[in-house]
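Chain A, query sequence.
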Amino acid sequence: MLLMCLSAMKPVMGADAPVTLSVSLVCGTDKPSPSFQYAGPVHQELQDKFTKIFKWEHYFLLTKKEVNLPLATGKKIRMSKDCELIFQVLEEGKVLQVQLLEPDESVRTLKHPLEPIWKEGELFVIAGDNKESAGDAWFLVIASPRPESKESKDSNGDPPDKESASTTP
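Chain A, predicted structure.
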């Protein structure tokens, strides 16, 4: 597993508002086209950043969701059939906790300060080996939401899935 932070755009959010995050599941590969169903290309900015840091030549967006998290509760979302996440905002809105649930592994819990994500535009990246495709990797990219663009729409031209925060995990 790999955990890192990368700088990105600088969004502005109100301190009293629920925390809104964009969560993308991305595959890194050297194959010029994916052998799996995917939602579309990653933002060019992310593609450029990843190719400078990681060894893979191509990055494909598998799933993208927007999650609204009230400060007092958490939220469970499914990114793929094998990837489920539980988000929780801790320490009076200062820390994001992410629990990664995979069917064949124990729960991994990671924490990251929230302010660099939604005020400074930092990316919170969690990564691992793709067990279904040797030599490839998966990345969960947690960021402040970007304005709607062509690249942030799925392969049907629809906006990414939005998750409401009305329930607790």
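The radius of gyration is 15 Å. Residues 1-15, 148-169 have pLDDT under 50 and may be disordered.
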